[in-house]
Amino acid sequence: MASVRCLDMSAAAGVSAECFTAHRRSLFGLAYRMLGSAVEAEDVVQEAYLRARSVEEAPESPGAYLATIVTRLCLDVLKSARARREAYVGPWLPEPVATGDLLDGEVAAAGYQGEHGAAESPAARMDRVESISMAFLVVLESLSPLERAALILRDVFDWEFGAIAAALGRSPAACRQLVHRAREHVAARQPRFRATEAERRRLFGAFLDAAARGDAGALAAMLAEGASATPDSGGKASSARRVLSGRDRITRYFIGLVRKGIGAVTRIASVNGGPALLVYEGTRVVTALGLDVSPAGIDAIWIMRNPDKLARLGAALPLLPPDARA
């Protein structure tokens, strides 16, 4: 990347707009992973810019400086998030996003390793797609805010523990413990092995085909033992109000959904790092559906129906012309 001027010479203070823009995508990626909400992530990034503009001197490491502001703002947001989650109607899922919002423009390890690179091998770091999957974001919700921040900064953005400690106001030893606990929790909640991209796409297509044909047997055969389906409507659209489990219950639910949606306009797009089915009414996205897959089959299905969480996705993925639709 070409060098950018990070001191706003016109104001003789603060991080310049050009410098901030160079880091904006990664800052959004950090905030989204922390909060699970693209709308809140955008608000945090904008607030970080306003604060960075007000400093008297340009920081030596602008990327790390901006990311530290974003991290601390996210921690403030998360203090009130738990109460809002408890008042939420039905199951809660992160806001789905078009994959390009988080991956385009990010460097190979999705962070600031040029300034805070760790000695850990690239193979030990978390894959960028894995770090925005719906399954991973759901697991992050069960971590404490500090555990979540430490894990993301270390395993996604490849920060050294000294830099994490400075960002979180904790000692490096305490941050190591935070990451250790978070890794253990994530490992206990996610499959040990991941399916290949080809297998994910194959199962996704087969799942949609079986549901369209009403083939309950084929659907059930694709589901891993212990599979679940999580619908999120926030009480603002018709949907199941609890997580569905068991092959029979899940297959009946999806066959019913397909029958109700006969004739709907759909398209397939990349959402949260994987294929998703988008259903439109007019030009609005009213449903987004995706799968989390392991070598054992389909582990989890997410169905977003909350219109508030679909508005940004719909703007990013408008309805295709008739000859290009799924």
What's the short story on this structure?
With 326 residues, this protein is α+β, with helices and mostly antiparallel strands. It has 13 helices and six strands.
The CA-CA distance between the termini, in Å, is: 37 Å
Radius of gyration: 21 Å
**H/I helix tally:** 13
Tertiary shape: globular
* Main sheet properties: 6 strands, mixed
- Number of strand elements: 6
Q: What structural class results from the helix and strand content?
A: alpha+beta
Strand content: 5-15%
Low-confidence stretches: 104-125
Approximate helicity band: 40-55%
**Order of secondary-structure elements:** HHHHHHHHHHHEEHEEEEH
Write a structural description.
With 326 residues, this protein is α+β, with helices and mostly antiparallel strands. It has 13 helices and six strands. The chain has a six-stranded mixed β-sheet with strand order 2-1-6-5-4-3, sandwiched between helices. Helix 2 crosses helix 3. The longest helix has 25 residues, at 62-86. It is globular and about 65 Å long. The two termini are 37 Å apart.
Topology:
Layout lengths: L16 H19 L2 H16 L8 H25 L13 H4 L9 H4 L17 H7 L4 H12 L4 H8 L3 H18 L7 H17 L2 H7 E10 L11 E2 L1 H14 L4 E7 L2 E8 L2 E11 L2 E8 L2 H10 L10
Helix pairs in contact: 1-2, 1-3, 2-3, 3-8, 7-9, 8-9, 10-11, 11-12
